[in-house]
Amino acid sequence: MRMRWVTATMLVSLAVPVFAQGAGPRGPVAAKKPYQVTSPNGTREDEYYWLRDDSRKRPDMLAYLAAENAYADAQLAALKPLQTKLYEEAVAHIKQDDSSVPFLKNGYWYASRFATGADYPVIERRRGSATAAPAVLFDQPAMAKGHNFFALSNWSVSPDNRMVAWAEDTVGRRQYVLKVKDIATGRVLADTVSNIEPNIVWAGDNRTILYIAKDPVTLRGYRVMAHALGTPVSADRMLYEEKDDTFQMTIGRTTDDRYVCIAVQSTVSDEQRCAPATRPDAFTVIAPRRREFRYAADHLGERWIIRTNRDALNYKLVTLADRDAASGVAAWRDLVPASDTVFIEDFKPFSGFVAIDQRAGGNRMIRLLTDSGRSVPVQAGEPAYRMGLSTNEEPDTPWVRYTYSSLVTPTTTFEINARTGERRTLKVTPVPGYDPSNYVTERLWAPARDGTRIPVSLVYRKGLKRDGTAPLFQYAYGSYGYSTDPSVDPGQIGLLDRGVIYAIAHIRGGQEMGRRWYDDGHLLKKKNSFTDFIDVTRYLVAQKYAAPGRVAAMGGSAGGLLMGAVANMAPQDYKVMVAQVPFVDVVTTMLDASIPLTTFEYDEWGNPADKPYYDYMLSYSPYDNVAAQAYPALYVGTGLWDSQVQYYEPAKWVARLRERKTDANPLLFRIDMEAGHGGKSGRFERLRQKAEWQAFMLSQLGVAG
């Protein structure tokens, strides 16, 4: 994932080159052309800048990408049987006619179900009872027909339960289209709005829909608009415009449905304004924005509950009584004080208690806090695991739904009674042909070079000998404070059954160990993420979990940046690396405010207009640091329509690697011409895509098919 995204607006325009058609054993050779990237802090050559084409239609660029795909096809042809086998094994571990746990909202039970062989689920609801006759809201298999890509990202039912609005994307660029239909008749209304964020909120009048309009160039959501059913889009009212382009925006309703809230956030600042759902134009700011001040507010009963970092590095919960709302921050009262060891990730208010989603010791867990002050921690029985709040739409209940998973335990949905402590199992995700008792999970602590202990979640098949001969597959992300939590992946069971050890390195840049873990892995400390990953690899090899010449690494998006940086810094430690939609052209991208996400991310990577940040980014940017040295075998993936990391970043990186690297190891570049940042849509197509790079990885590790 990269929440993320150049223009260098001060670029010299040159004639567009073509690529050399002769691929040879090293792959397609992209033509080089002198091109100057100029910034306030320096000028650099970018001989492959010509690969950027914002229209995505230029014949020479498309021909080059086609040549790369053809080369990948040829190099992977011999692995087709293994790829097919891995895909079939993954599909065999998925219950094809599966369904979700129904949840209750406003008198209706909602659930989704897959039919055998279907890539997309049907979403339906039942009135009054989870066992009543279902009514179909969305037949996604039918909706997806005729589209190479399809995503129904968000949907919302009107308060009177008559209408449903949704956001869909049939390109993969996350420029969603708002649509509405009458549930009883199935009639799709003429009301359609293009280029929006997926957030959709109904006002209390059952005919007004609030949505976020995107800038057509930067794709930044910047205006909250109100659309009245049956009126032209040109008549939509603007309720709020965010003019600071370093902020992102979301909209939603509070838990009690009384308020509609607009939340704007940057890496280091939040501001939330709320209005009664019956009057969604009279917004009041909860607390004004300022740097290094973050908060998120929800409402239930006669009070606001707010998660904030005000005087709390790891966040705390405070309350604000309705009667004191005009007093603002001065009236905030601590509900859950700050802790040095517990990081509050999220919360959900219920009548009589609050469910708290928190982290400690590298694990994510749930705690229930009653209004009387009694604290009920939810217990776990494994060394490395993840709990998370599930769908809890009705606050007037003692039952809290949450999910539990580990690297050996399939995702399980529980509900626990906050009053009695009773726990019920609602669903264990079925994984056909999988027996958890055949696998072992561990939590290790690898020493980083500066003495920091890095948590590592590990899984392998029982009986594997720790003698320094096993192949290792190591994964990490480590950016934006996004934490990587363990779960069973049907697409990776085949790797474990072939003797591969799978490790998640919880490197700095995430928030597994609290907010300081993130602070020590971004901006001018970003290199800690890279060295943490390398040090985890070396520790696992030294402890004989893996053979030194049989280590694979993978990361995607900002984790692809991690792969690029690690490949430059320690290529000798890895036999093969997989970089999916990798953010590898850091400096040039961050110089260009027209590229989606760039302005949001100055507080994540730094603003290269400031020399200290420019110099630091330039010192690790993978594209800028490709050297004349040996690299591991590489599989690089992207999507032509990626809006988070533009396709030309990995295209340029691959071209420069082909030119400069001194080894004969394979370098494959797979471009999905019909997808964006998340790759193929549909559960089976994603597995097919995954099986390709897995087959390549296993072949490089010397693992038999």
Keywords:
705 residues; eight-stranded mixed sheet; Rossmann fold; single chain; Methylamine Dehydrogenase, Chain H; 3 domains; seven-stranded antiparallel sheet; alpha+beta; 12 helices
Characterization of this structure:
The structure is a single chain. By secondary structure, this protein is of the alpha+beta class. The protein has 3 domains: 36-91 and 440-701, Alpha/Beta hydrolase fold, catalytic domain (Rossmann fold, 3-Layer(aba) Sandwich), CATH 3.40.50.1820; 101-337, 7 Propeller (Methylamine Dehydrogenase, Chain H), CATH 2.130.10.120; 341-430. An 8-stranded mixed sheet has the order 30-31-33-32-34-35-36-37, with helices on both faces. Mean pLDDT is 93; it is low at 1-22.
* Terminal residue distance: 29 Å
Largest sheet: 8 strands, mixed
Shape: globular
CATH superfamily of the largest domain: Alpha/Beta hydrolase fold, catalytic domain
Alpha plus pi helix count: 12
Q: Kindly state the percentage of residues in helix.
A: 10-25%
> Per CATH, what is the topology of the largest domain?
Rossmann fold
Q: Return the CATH class of the largest domain.
A: Alpha Beta
Describe the SSE topology.
Layout: E1 36-39, E2 42-45, H1 59-76, H2 80-92, E3 103-105, E4 108-113, E5 122-127, E6 134-139, H3 140-144, E7 151-157, E8 163-169, E9 176-182, E10 188-202, E11 208-214, E12 221-228, E13 237-241, E14 248-253, E15 259-265, E16 270-276, E17 284-285, E18 295-300, E19 303-308, E20 316-321, E21 333-336, E22 343-350, E23 353-360, E24 363-370, E25 375-377, E26 386-389, E27 399-405, E28 412-417, E29 423-428, E30 439-447, E31 453-461, E32 472-475, H4 493-497, E33 501-505, H5 515-519, H6 527-542, E34 551-556, H7 558-569, E35 576-580, H8 586-590, H9 602-605, H10 611-620, E36 633-639, H11 648-660, E37 667-672, H12 683-701
Parallel strand pairs: 32-33, 32-34, 34-35, 35-36, 36-37
Antiparallel strand pairs: 1-2, 3-4, 4-5, 5-6, 7-8, 8-9, 9-10, 10-11, 11-12, 12-13, 14-15, 15-16, 16-17, 18-19, 19-20, 20-21, 22-23, 23-24, 24-25, 26-27, 27-28, 28-29, 30-31, 31-33
Helix pairs in contact: 2-12, 6-7
